[in-house]
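In practice, a research group might receive sequence data for several interacting partners and want a quick structural hypothesis before committing to experiments. The following worked case mirrors that situation: the sequences arrive first, and a predicted assembly follows.
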Amino acid sequence: DADVTQTPRNRITKTGKRIMLECSQTKGHDRMYWYRQDPGLGLRLIYYSFDVKDINKGEISDGYSVSRQAQAKFSLSLESAIPNQTALYFCATSDFTQGYEQFFGPGTRLTVL
Amino acid sequence: DQQVKQNSPSLSVQEGRISILNCDYTNSMFDYFLWYKKYPAEGPTFLISISSIKDKNEDGRFTVFLNKSAKHLSLHIVPSQPGDSAVYFCAARRYNNNDMRFGAGTRLTVKP
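A structural hypothesis for the assembly, expressed as tokens:
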């Protein structure tokens, strides 16, 4: 079983719709992250969380919000999706005892029409 | 403002030869560097890392070299194998800062 899972794996939606992407992990890590990948730009950090009560903005947080419902769950919301949010989204986890290595989920491909 | 740059979008090498993937960075505050490998339909997986106090780190067929004065690092894969065909991302971060910056990636193809 995968240690970091993301649902859905693929989603097509329309402009203005609210979308939630979910991430769950069984690694027991305290830190969780959301990234988006765009062609030619690599991965960019959207939000990260060190524990249930901790939420921090990343490089590109505008238009997104997150919720850390439990240590194992971290969800990303697009309140009103727009076409330039079409991208591949990755959730990742890490544990401070393992240095800076992050463990990534398989990704969610989101298309906003 | 891309602080980590991988200027070669793709690289093709013959099986058994050396693959050299390059990465440049602009922020002199970066002190830890990582390489990730990504296969299609999967998330990136950690490959190798190096701290700024070192100039070389080796793990089997993979070696990362860091040149701080040039703000440049490279990943060497010797010998290259077809299973190494993937997209490789360079990443960098500052000490005690969780905002890790990634390059755009280089697609490596190793031909049998």
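Before designing any experiment, note the following. Chain A touches chain B through 26 residues (CB under 8 Å). The radius of gyration of chain A is 13 Å.
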